[in-house]
């Protein structure tokens, strides 16, 4: 798939080369090569089951938790082999936001302080600072600053998702992975998340899986189109600037998908 | 034409009528069942209240400060109070939990959090887990006197621990281990995967995830298991009959023999004519169980502040 090896004008943050992934014997991803640019929003789109989530989980090695997963090819962050890095270190660098908001059954404060604390930070003042900065960064501070001791579960769905983003920001990552972060939210909450993603892209490299074409169009700078056929093995069909993918895709499968024949 | 439509109409009416009848019948049927269910639950509650009320009414007649603070005098008369049996009961509950809780929690955590993952690819570990589950299920259904016999054979005689708080609490631990393991396992399994993943994705280790996220979230379920176990120890007689001895003196070490409230009640009822004292002991027994439940419930609320999505 080297013909999709698009060179962006930006520094490459994340990269895979001929990267394949197997769940046991089942090949879920076939030789994916891509260069994901730094401090840009890259959307992964494609029909369900084509391996978007699987591919996303490569970058913080959440696939390690699934028994029987094996990979070939390489995955790099800042040019370094992701599988050679210390996994705890990697995950501090690469935050993740999940499809369903999953705040811990703890207070808002403790949710955000969780990451710094498990990474060994004890200084209470520093923790306070980080919590405030992260909640501001996730555009949640104004709504919760007066009840930081309230349970994170007491927030609305959209607020919970922003809390999870704040929680990820608190460990000061450089990359944020988002797997359909707005899939369970109402349109207004979705819009707020999208605005937030825009803002975050100034400082973070963001990779977002989305089912929603309009959303990909609205939030992303680059779009990668994944596809799968009867073999159920996912492949990268096309990767380009989002407006190119949406207006003049090179591959007919991309065009068909964009114009709504699939998914 | 007009005739046809009118006959149709009347047929419709008839159907509507029948449906209405039918509706009435169904409603009646439903109401009968409601009433029966109501009576059922009322009877249940009434029986419960009758038992507790009777024991309390009879028992509290003899309960006074002296009854609570003097030891039994022994002998056939059943004279004296129950002070030492209250203390022995509390000692025994505490000591049993000291043995059973870490073991039970450890076993459940291992089975769910560690062996569970490995069993997917390892047939041997999968078999081992199945066997462990089978063992736990079986143990949970065994009559308690068998734990008593086992405790007697192993702790009292083979290990020469004698009739003592130590032997009794070890045997008691065997008795409640299945309960603690089962309830803890269930509690751990109900903690959503999303929470674990969220923690790991923040760079937490598996151990941190377990202690800081999974266990607190599972705490209400775990505490339920502990409360059930405490109740079981307080009300158990068969096991302690053969492992604790029956001394009504105040135990001064864990090697001392002793008598729990339930055992004392048993002695009073079987060997003496002090039926009133037996009732008094029963009343205190019930009150103790209620108090311990409340205390443990409070502790768990503290531990799990925020878990339920409210302050
Ligand atoms: N834990 C897993 N074990 C086995 N197969 C999996 C697992 N997760 C996903 N798959 C399979 O891998 C393929 C890609 O899944 P996924 O990455 O979730 O796709 P997407 O996110 O694009 O919908 C699917 O065929 C799915 O069934
Ligand atoms: Mg997915």
Strand and helix map with partners:
The complex is a heterodimer of chains A (263) and B (311).
Chain A: E1 12-23, E2 26-37, E3 41-45, H1 52-58, E4 69-77, E5 80-81, H2 87-93, E6 94-97, H3 108-118, H4 124-137, H5 141-144, H6 157-169, E7 175-179, H7 187-200, E8 205-209, H8 213-219, E9 222-228, E10 234-241, H9 242-247, H10 252-258
Helix pairs in contact in A: 3-4, 3-6, 4-6, 6-7
Chain B: H1 2-60, H2 65-69, H3 83-118, H4 123-140, H5 144-158, H6 165-189, H7 193-201, H8 206-235, H9 238-243, H10 261-271, H11 275-303
Helix pairs in contact in B: 1-11, 3-6, 3-8, 4-6, 5-6, 6-8, 7-8, 8-11, 10-11
Residues 52-53, 179, 209 of chain A line the site of magnesium ion.
Structure description:
- The complex is a heterodimer of chains A (263) and B (311).
- Chain A has 263 residues and is an alpha/beta fold.
- Chain A has 10 helices and 10 strands.
- Chain A has a 6-stranded mixed β-sheet with strand order 6-7-8-3-9-10, with helices on both faces. A 4-stranded antiparallel β-sheet of chain A has the order 2-1-4-5, covered by helices on one side.
- Chain B is flat, with a radius of gyration of 28 Å.
- Chain B has 311 residues and is mainly α.
- Chain B has 11 helices and no strands.
- Chain B has 2 domains: 1-59; 65-309, MetI-like (MetI-like fold), CATH 1.10.3720.10.
- At the A-B interface, helix 2, helix 3 and helix 6 of A face helix 7 and helix 8 of B.
- The structure holds adenosine-5'-diphosphate and magnesium ion.
- Residues 52-53, 179, 209 of chain A line the site of magnesium ion (MG).
Beta strands of chain A, count: 10
Task: Give the domain tally of chain B.
Answer: 2
Question: In CATH, what is the class of the largest domain in chain B?
Answer: Mainly Alpha
Main β-sheet of chain B: number of strands, strand sense, barrel status? Answer: none
Show unreliable segments of chain B. Answer: none
H/E topology pattern of chain A:
EEEHEEHEHHHHEHEHEEHH
Structural class of chain B: mainly alpha
Helix content class of chain A: 25-40%
């Amino acid at each position: 798939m080297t013909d999709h090896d698009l060179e962006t004008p930006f520094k490459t943050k994340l990269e895979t080369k001929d990267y394949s992934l197997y769940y046991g014997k089942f090949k879920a991803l076939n030789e994916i090569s891509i260069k994901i640019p730094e401090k840009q929003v890259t959307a992964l789109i494609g029909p369900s089951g084509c391996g978007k989530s699987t591919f996303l989980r490569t970058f913080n090695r959440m696939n390690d938790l699934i028994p029987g997963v094996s990979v070939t090819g390489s995955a790099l962050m800042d040019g370094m082999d992701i599988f050679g890095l210390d996994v705890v270190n990697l995950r501090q660098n690469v935050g993740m936001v999940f499809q369903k908001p999953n705040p811990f059954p703890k207070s808002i404060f403790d949710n955000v302080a969780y990451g710094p604390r498990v990474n060994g930070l004890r200084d209470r003042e520093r923790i306070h600072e980080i919590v405030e900065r992260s909640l501001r960064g996730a555009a949640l501070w104004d709504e919760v600053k007066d009840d930081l001791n309230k349970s994170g579960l007491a927030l609305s769905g959209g607020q919970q998702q922003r809390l999870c983003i704040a929680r990820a920001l608190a460990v000061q990552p450089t990359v944020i992975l988002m797997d359909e972060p707005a899939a369970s939210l109402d349109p207004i909450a979705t819009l707020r998340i999208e605005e937030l993603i825009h803002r975050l892209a100034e400082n973070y490299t963001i990779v977002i899986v989305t089912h929603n074409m309009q959303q990909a169009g609205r939030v992303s700078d680059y779009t990668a189109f994944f596809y799968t056929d009867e073999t159920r093995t996912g492949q990268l069909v096309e990767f380009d600037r989002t407006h190119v993918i949406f207006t003049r895709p090179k591959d007919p499968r991309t065009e068909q998908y964009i114009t709504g024949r699939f998914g | 034409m007009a005739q046809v439509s009118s006959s149709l109409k009347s047929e419709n009416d008839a159907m509507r009528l029948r449906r209405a009848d039918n509706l009435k019948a169904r409603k009646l049927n439903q109401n009968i069942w409601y009433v029966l269910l109501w009576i059922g639950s009322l009877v249940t509650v009434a029986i419960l209240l009758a038992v507790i009320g009777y024991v309390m009414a009879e028992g509290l007649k003899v309960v006074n400060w002296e009854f609570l603070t003097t030891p039994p005098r022994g002998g056939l008369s059943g004279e004296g109070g129950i002070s030492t049996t209250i203390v022995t009961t509390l000692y025994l509950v505490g000591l049993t939990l000291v043995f059973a809780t870490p073991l039970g929690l450890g076993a459940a955590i291992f089975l769910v959090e560690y062996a569970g993952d490995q069993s997917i690819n390892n047939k041997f570990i999968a078999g081992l887990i199945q066997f462990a589950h089978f063992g736990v299920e079986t143990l949970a259904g065994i009559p308690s006197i068998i734990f008593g016999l086992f405790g007697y054979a192993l702790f009292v005689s083979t290990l020469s621990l004698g009739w003592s708080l130590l032997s009794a609490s070890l045997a008691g631990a065997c008795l409640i281990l299945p309960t603690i393991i089962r309830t803890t396992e269930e509690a751990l399994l109900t903690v959503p995967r999303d929470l674990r993943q969220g923690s790991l994705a923040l760079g937490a280790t598996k151990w941190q995830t377990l202690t800081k996220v999974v266990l607190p979230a599972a705490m209400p379920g775990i505490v339920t298991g502990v409360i059930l176990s405490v109740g079981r120890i307080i009300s158990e007689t068969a096991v302690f009959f053969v492992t604790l001895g029956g001394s009504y003196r105040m135990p001064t070490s864990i090697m001392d023999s002793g008598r729990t409230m339930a055992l004392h009640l048993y002695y009073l009822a079987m060997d003496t004519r002090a039926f009133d004292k037996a009732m008094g002991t029963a009343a205190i027994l019930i009150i103790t169980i209620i108090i311990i439940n409340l205390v443990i419930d409070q502790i768990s609320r503290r531990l799990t502040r925020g878990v339920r999505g409210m302050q």
